Amino acid sequence: MFTQKKYKITINEGAEIMNNKVLLIILSILLAPLAVFLKKGAGKDLIINIVLCFVFYIPAVIHALILVTK
């Protein structure tokens, strides 16, 4: 009678979400270190952004926007 469809979420679909620039730009403004982490991963860029976030938030946002829009 009724058939059930099974949906699989692949890793590739998750990568497409993280490459959405509009989402990353919004995250850069609201949560700069999270946007940098999603774009570049855990590394020197994330450490730089966290330090900038502690010093003053605006440079962290600018740094995140530069990395996201590259």
Q: What can you tell me about this protein's structure?
A:
The chain is built from 5 helices and no strands. It has 70 residues and is an all-alpha fold. The chain has one domain.
Q: Detail the poorly predicted runs.
A: none
Tell me the quaternary state.
Answer: single chain
Q: Quick one: how many beta strands?
A: 0
> How large is the count of helical segments?
5
What letter string, H or E per element, gives the SSE order?
Answer: HHHHH
N- and C-termini, Cα separation:
51 Å
Q: How does the major sheet shape up?
A: none
% residues in beta strands: under 5%
Helical percent range? over 70%
Shape: elongated
Secondary structure category: mainly alpha
Count of individual domains: 1
Question: Features of this protein?
Answer:
single chain, 5 helices, elongated
What topology emerges from the helices and strands here?
Blueprint: H1 11-18, H2 21-30, H3 32-40, H4 44-55, H5 57-69
Q: Would you summarize the structure shown here?
A:
The chain has helices at 11-18, 21-30, 32-40, 44-55, 57-69.
